[in-house]
Amino acid sequence: PTVRPNLTGTSGISLVSCPDVPPNLRGVLHVEFRTNRTLQDVRNHVGPLLQQGGRYRPTSCRAKQKVAVIVPFRNRFEHLNHWLYYLHPVLMRQQLDYSVYVINQDGDGVFNKAKLMNIGFKEALKEYDYDCFVFSDVDLVPLDDRNLYRCSDHPRHLSIAVDKFDFILPYATLFGGVSALSKQQFLKVNGFSNAFWGWGGEDDDMSQRLSYRGMVISRPDSVTGRYKMIKHRRDSHNDPNPKNVQKLTETHLNMDTDGINSLNYSVREIRKDLLYTFVTVDVEAPA
Ligand code: UD2
Ligand code: MN
């Protein structure tokens, strides 16, 4: 049986814990981005098992972790459709208790990916008692569902082998792409810096924060950790920012005062789609 009567909890029934290794994983996945997928196509494909807000939890066992999947976003709807199409079935097979939060930067000011991720952390916790936060680029799809979107004893970098980098980790401290931090790990480093405007550096700053707090990065092996990135050009209002390079020399000076404890923003709208929670925010971009 999968349901045990009346052990703990208030509902009268309590589920047994899901197994350590999810039983229905497929391993290597076939992923391709050539077709046009509308949001409605994706809803038809993965919607039936979801609740509003891109929410799911296994019904036959109790998920090991409560995971908020956070996607920093602006104007990449085509990518988002592919991402949702591939990720939802994977996350379901991984037996996670999860929701997807798309954190959408309002307006056309300079993009700030790290700030959007901090906002995702904060907004998600207003809804549910998540214990794990997975941060993902909207253009990265895993090529193997054994790459679990869960947290572990160490901060985890999931996208070790991306096709764009010929499936090789470009440098050992890389933490960009897809990463997973427990609530405790995230708070221990005061979250991400809010000060990285434009492209580049925010992931390296997080990597340094982790190291300054004595944490090491864990990764899947380079076969399990393969990813495909949707091809794209650099977005407008997200140019590489030379100041971000300078900022990386100051991580240790700023990390206690610049982060989740100094985060300012306003929520413009929270919209629940079947496939995701879409949070539009003003990040107070410099004029
Ligand atoms: C790399 C990193 C990425 C990030 C970035 C530097 C990997 C695999 N990826 O990606 O994590 O650290 O360098 O900042 O190492 N976005 C929008 N709209 C925009 C701009 C960005 O939605 O107008 C979001 C989207 O989720 C995107 C992510 O920000 O995937 C990163 O931006 P990118 O894809 O332009 O950066 P890229 O591919 O160089
Ligand atoms: Mn990209």
TrEMBL record:
Domain of life where this protein originates: Eukaryota
GO terms of biological process kind: carbohydrate metabolic process; protein N-linked glycosylation
InterPro entries the UniProt entry points to: Galactosyl_T, Galactosyl_T_C, Galactosyl_T_N, Nucleotide-diphossugar_trans
CC annotations in GO: Golgi cisterna membrane; Golgi membrane
Signal peptide segment: none
EC number: 2.4.1.-
Enzyme class: transferase
Protein topology in the membrane: Single-pass type II membrane protein
Catalytic activity: N-acetyl-D-glucosamine + UDP-alpha-D-galactose = beta-D-galactosyl-(1->4)-N-acetyl-D-glucosamine + UDP + H(+)
Family matches, as CDD domains: b4GalT
GO molecular function: beta-N-acetylglucosaminylglycopeptide beta-1,4-galactosyltransferase activity; cytoskeletal protein binding; metal ion binding; N-acetyllactosamine synthase activity
Residue ranges of every copy of the Galactosyltransferase N-terminal domain listed in the record: 18-152
Subcellular location: Golgi apparatus membrane
Cofactor(s) needed for function: Mn(2+)
PANTHER family (alphabetical): BETA-1,4-GALACTOSYLTRANSFERASE (PTHR19300), BETA-1,4-GALACTOSYLTRANSFERASE 1 (PTHR19300:SF5)
Name by which UniProt lists this protein: Beta-1,4-galactosyltransferase
Species this protein is from: Poecilia reticulata (Guppy)
